[in-house]
UniProtKB/TrEMBL annotation, chains A, B, C, D:
Segments forming domain SIS: 46-188
UniProt lineage: Bacteria, Bacillati, Actinomycetota, Actinomycetes, Micrococcales
InterPro entries hit by this protein: PHI/rmpB (IPR017552), SIS_dom (IPR001347), SIS_dom_sf (IPR046348)
Record flagged with keyword Isomerase: yes
Protein name: 6-phospho-3-hexuloisomerase
Gene: hxlB
Amino acid sequence: MHEITSTLTGPTVAESLATIAAEQARVIRRLIDGPNTTPDAEFEAAVARLQTARRIFVMGAGRSGLALRMTAMRLMHLGLDVHVVGEVTTPAIAASDVLLVASGSGMTRAVVGAAETAGQVGAAIVTITTTPGSRLAELSSTTIVLPAAQKEDHAGTISAQYSGSLFEQLVLTVGDAIFHTLWQASGATAEQLWPRHANLE
Amino acid sequence: MHEITSTLTGPTVAESLATIAAEQARVIRRLIDGPNTTPDAEFEAAVARLQTARRIFVMGAGRSGLALRMTAMRLMHLGLDVHVVGEVTTPAIAASDVLLVASGSGMTRAVVGAAETAGQVGAAIVTITTTPGSRLAELSSTTIVLPAAQKEDHAGTISAQYSGSLFEQLVLTVGDAIFHTLWQASGATAEQLWPRHANLE
Amino acid sequence: MHEITSTLTGPTVAESLATIAAEQARVIRRLIDGPNTTPDAEFEAAVARLQTARRIFVMGAGRSGLALRMTAMRLMHLGLDVHVVGEVTTPAIAASDVLLVASGSGMTRAVVGAAETAGQVGAAIVTITTTPGSRLAELSSTTIVLPAAQKEDHAGTISAQYSGSLFEQLVLTVGDAIFHTLWQASGATAEQLWPRHANLE
Amino acid sequence: MHEITSTLTGPTVAESLATIAAEQARVIRRLIDGPNTTPDAEFEAAVARLQTARRIFVMGAGRSGLALRMTAMRLMHLGLDVHVVGEVTTPAIAASDVLLVASGSGMTRAVVGAAETAGQVGAAIVTITTTPGSRLAELSSTTIVLPAAQKEDHAGTISAQYSGSLFEQLVLTVGDAIFHTLWQASGATAEQLWPRHANLE
């Protein structure tokens, strides 16, 4: 085994964990207690749209897209018909479908383009963003606004973390909260969801 | 636009957020303050191994794998040579490389198989798991143990969330804490990392 | 623009194309005219199974898997319910489903494992391979045998190409021939398939 | 096992194979013997660019992208530094890099956008297309023109196959011919390439 020589200066992992946890807690407290960037009605509208969608399509660039894929997997476990934009077998979106997207800036070119197409065919758009006035928010049926930093906020005034990390962490947490609400509303037990997990890997 | 009729019972999204945030906070507090499942020395060993690796390979099944991909992207932004197992251009692992894996149970067949191969060629293995005594932990050079629920803990004694959700959320947070520590140790500014972001999408 | 200095020896691209085309033609001629490694009845059984499947799952390692993904996309265009094993939203396979796999050796560990699971739940298995007596062929409901080289036939007695290239090229051609037959049998025009192409990228 | 009732009309798989093989052979004959849509000098320029590139990035939409991924895997086996655009760990392209793309129409929006970016940073662009006068061809350092059908040639005058299938099959064959030429020029044996195959799956 090769020898390991640490050349660390700066925070330990435990200190970094404390920093990140404090940032996440601050955003979540604002989402719950206010001053609210996302009113409860908007959250419940997102849930209702996903619950009644014929099919759900998820899309995001980079790490936001990976966080949404984690949510997509859970929605599939719930028995919903879910597709990840860009995957091989993803069909064309149509009316009665929902496009679920995440973009901190609300300006990611490919995501805005997809939202425009989705809007043209009559699909609903549910957006997670930090930017309520963005082009993406304008196109959206339902907008969840997270008070987190944007990718190019290099000054670190909202978050000490690199780029959009705080936003991306919250996309996962909010996605999982939406799933948890949908799951509890479904009345299904964990044992009933389990057989839907992929069995061929 | 189709009409939306909510048929919700159970928690609102804000209530689900509060549940999830409390679970995450409890695990992180134990990681920081103890009783520690992962001593500081183990965290710093993980950081040192990634810092000195010739190349880093990441692997996990399902949502754990997606969370590790988020970490992999950040490690690439830091200038490290990173590969996701299973992607088209991922080469063979060799000595001086590090395999970074996540598996709640420590028994995921494909992950254990990869760790066995990595060990045979002399690569180091850094594992994130909930299960210190597992086969995967035995194979590992460095093990980060998270006091979170396992996938098949359907009784919900550790987490009210479905399956391994709490573990998977923490894989992301711990991965981002490791990145944050590596980044701060590197002395690079955000502006210096930014040009490494993919420019062709 | 950087200067380009070729240091080629060996065949030109045109010469390599001629070599590859001759190898492909020889295999296809044997599939059509005999001595047949795959009788017509076996081809038609594969078509019938895909046509009547509730859902189709495709799986292959490396380049074989990429070739099958190309086929999977076409089957989706035909309106079939298709999933790629390993993708985020792929559900569990069940009876009435078909698993379509490709493995030159018939021994690829993950593919054989998937076929065993598929067989246990009562799904049909359609296999493309070079090896009729393999474990994978034994598990299969329908086996298409291609008289092409295997991956580790380094001596180049069947193909001058590297590793399983000839087999992988034929997986694509045979997959597209099966699609062409299914499409013509469906009576649909190209214009009727077109709207199913992904519209969000 | 469920019963299978075939409802086929139209060509058998063997007949479809014969149709496809004849179409492929006709295009390859024109590439080799003329009237040439791609002169030998252009093929050899593509080889030289890939041979001398610092890093190679591949990109294509849908099935063209999957065919290029198959080529990318082989280039990695040859020891080249290869990345697939859109994958998690793919870095930013820069001067001395080569972007290898495929688009039948030469108008695929995302591919043209990537080529524009690549050109701006001084990277070379190698294009496989059916359309010599397209925007993509204009941007390219080296253009390989295949006399195959375009996606929306629904009339079937060039190919009886659906959409861009013939083009996509030839992207694979031409990519493999370029690899074969690079491999033979390298002087490496199959045994020398073999250890580069992924060992963690």
